Amino acid sequence: MRRLLPEPAAIGVDPYEAYGDLPRLRLGMVMSADGSVTDAEGWTDGLGGAADFRVFRTLRALADGIVVGAGTVRTGRLGPARLRDDLRARRGGPPAPIVVVSRSLDLDWTLPLFTEAETPTIVVTTRTAESRVPGRLRVVAAGEDDVDLPAAVRALREDLGHEHLLCEGGPSLAAALIRASLVDELCLNIAPTLLGGARHTRLLEGLDAEVPLDPAALYLDEGVLFVRYRLRA
Ligand SMILES: NC(=O)c1ccc[n+]([C@@H]2O[C@H](COP(=O)([O-])OP(=O)(O)OC[C@H]3O[C@@H](n4cnc5c(N)ncnc54)[C@H](OP(=O)(O)O)[C@@H]3O)[C@@H](O)[C@H]2O)c1
């Protein structure tokens, strides 16, 4: 991976070190150059290739909790967090838990994400719905009938000790976290491809205000551009 900004580096940079300055909440997503976060299959695997996966795995290994929206879980493609041996050694412990945010709890509890995770998956939901989460799972209840995202993030940090969070999307949850001013950094991996087509899914769904960004770093690896933006407070 080559660093182009803040100043170009002559030799390759190690993603684990490059992304090691952890913000409190980092949003990490991949999209095509024409702005789609889903590939032709409606998932993300076909977008960024091996270079994207290296950074994806690195961001997971660095995080204390990996937050995803229920819509992403409902694709059925999200497995439990796993760590490769090299990243496990650098992290010095098991993977961070996946944290699923859902109001409806319309989720398939038989998915490996809920039954086979080395670090048990956490469900964030409302106080009204919390009793419907299977007892073997950890639950954070925040808000009465709608998920109170600031309260949920506070509980993840203060009650469960997950200080540095990574949100992997999808577009609805990502926009909701930005609306609530909870996102400090956007790590956008731009795949060198134009997708077009009917399956085009935008990066953010439901963001109704302009949010200024400060570019903080730019890397290039196998044609994928890795941009890091700070969100202005
Ligand atoms: N390229 C990438 O990096 C990337 C990453 C992730 C996902 N994706 C793609 O994105 C798509 C899924 O995205 P999505 O937007 O449909 O779903 P999503 O953002 O993953 O999840 C949305 C769901 O989160 C729950 N939620 C709880 N509180 C919320 C709040 N305040 N605001 C918003 N959501 C809240 C709701 O679940 P309930 O409905 O259960 O109440 C809501 O339906 C999939 O196609 C996936 O492949 C792409």
UniProtKB/TrEMBL annotation:
The protein's annotated pathway: Cofactor biosynthesis; riboflavin biosynthesis
Location of the Bacterial bifunctional deaminase-reductase C-terminal domain: 25-208
UniProt name for this protein: 5-amino-6-(5-phosphoribosylamino)uracil reductase
Pfam families: RibD_C
Lineage: Bacteria, Bacillati, Actinomycetota, Actinomycetes, Streptosporangiales
An MF annotation (GO) of this entry: 5-amino-6-(5-phosphoribosylamino)uracil reductase activity
Keywords of this entry: NADP, Oxidoreductase
Keyword Membrane: no
PANTHER family in the cross-refs: 2,5-DIAMINO-6-RIBOSYLAMINO-4(3H)-PYRIMIDINONE 5'-PHOSPHATE REDUCTASE (PTHR38011:SF7), DIHYDROFOLATE REDUCTASE FAMILY PROTEIN (AFU_ORTHOLOGUE AFUA_8G06820) (PTHR38011)
